[in-house]
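4.2 Preliminary Data

To establish feasibility before requesting continued support, the project team ran the inverse folding procedure on a target of 370 residues. The structure was first converted into the token representation described in Section 3, and no sequence information of any kind was made available to the design step. The complete token record follows.
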């Protein structure tokens, strides 16, 4: 009985020992991986490089892991293009057959090109591995995969040109209103004029202005969703430029309706607090601030995007934080300006602004943060 138990224990130990030996890492190249960056506005990682030693452990294999959309080169020669996350095991002898080794150093340079590549996405190890599929050395990578067209970039460029053209048209059509609506100096005026400096409530010039504002708001929202990697609009990317334009115009209509609802919200509380003469001035003042901030932020985002900056999600977080900060500063600035015009005390005014402005602001913060 004891002999049987000992034999069983020995068999189990040999099984685990065999399994360990069959998955033994001899050399870990991950700490040796060097990330190269390109420098435009900000540094962006574009290439990972490591030299493989093909002289030691001739019977070993390489376990290689690459992220999606990575072009892999061996000694400046394209090996394959990983259209999806790729992991495989390749014998060292097979790798020697695919690409010659430097006779002096006995190493083979491995290069992986991908925008925003990171060490955590790669893995290069030499050892004895039980599992893993091999890769064909004669993979012919289609050129369209290496030069994949980005429909979002084309759409954002077209949309930005359209918005800037409409702003230029607004300046030509309504030059007087343009001076008060799109000049940054007007945000620091010491008085909140009644009627929005001669602008009538929902006249043609105001509707034109709100249209441009809604288009810019929709464009900024779309770009934030895309840069942040939120897959809410991925189904529309397949349709190309026409599909993206339809999404943009639909978002414009949504924000246009939302703007009218915001004014009605302010109008309701203005009637309750008997402030009928400042409701539109209050509404248009914040729209002017947000319009100018959105325009500047979107142009900056596009500048980084066109330069190939890879950490656009961090830029989106910064832009959204700046947007909310300016929005909140505009509310406090509005409180300061309205103190000179309202007939009642400051805590009544604060109560009014909490109802008409801070509640919608907190809803926006909840939607962004949540």
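Position-by-position output of the design step:
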């Amino acid at each position: 009985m004891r002999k049987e138990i000992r034999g069983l224990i020995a068999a189990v130990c040999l099984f685990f020992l065999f399994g360990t030996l069959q998955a033994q890492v001899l050399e870990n190249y991950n700490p040796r991986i060097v990330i190269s960056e390109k420098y435009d506005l900000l540094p962006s990682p574009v290439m990972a490089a490591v030299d493989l030693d093909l002289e030691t452990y001739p019977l070993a294999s390489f376990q290689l892991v690459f992220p999606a959309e990575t072009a892999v080169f061996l000694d400046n020669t394209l090996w394959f293009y990983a259209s999806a996350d790729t992991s495989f095991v390749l014998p060292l002898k097979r790798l020697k057959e695919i690409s010659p080794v430097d006779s002096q150093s006995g190493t083979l340079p491995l290069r992986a090109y991908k925008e925003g590549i990171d060490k955590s996405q790669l893995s290069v190890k030499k050892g004895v591995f039980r599992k893993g599929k091999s890769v064909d050395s004669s993979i012919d990578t289609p050129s369209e995969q290496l030069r994949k067209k980005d429909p979002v970039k084309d759409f954002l460029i077209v949309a930005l040109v359209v918005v800037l053209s409409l702003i230029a048209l607004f300046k030509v059509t309504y030059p007087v209103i343009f001076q008060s609506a799109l000049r940054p100096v007007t945000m620091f005026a010491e008085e909140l004029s009644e009627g929005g400096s001669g602008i009538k409530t929902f006249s043609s010039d105001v509707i034109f202005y709100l249209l441009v504002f809604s288009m810019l708001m929709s464009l900024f929202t779309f770009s934030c969703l895309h840069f942040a990697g939120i897959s809410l609009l991925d189904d529309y990317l397949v349709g190309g430029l026409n599909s993206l334009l339809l999404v943009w115009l639909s978002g414009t209509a949504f924000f246009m309706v939302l703007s009218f609802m915001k004014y009605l919200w302010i109008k309701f509380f203005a009637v309750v607090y008997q402030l009928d003469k400042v409701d539109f001035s209050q509404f248009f003042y914040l729209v002017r601030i947000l319009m100018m901030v959105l325009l500047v932020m979107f142009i900056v985002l596009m500048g980084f995007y066109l330069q190939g900056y890879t950490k656009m999600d961090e830029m989106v977080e910064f832009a959204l934080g700046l947007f909310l900060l300016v929005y909140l500063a505009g509310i406090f600035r509005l409180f300061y300006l309205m103190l000179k015009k309202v007939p009642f005390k400051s805590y009544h005014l604060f109560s009014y602004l909490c109802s008409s402005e801070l509640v919608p602001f907190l809803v926006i913060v909840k939607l962004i943060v949540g």
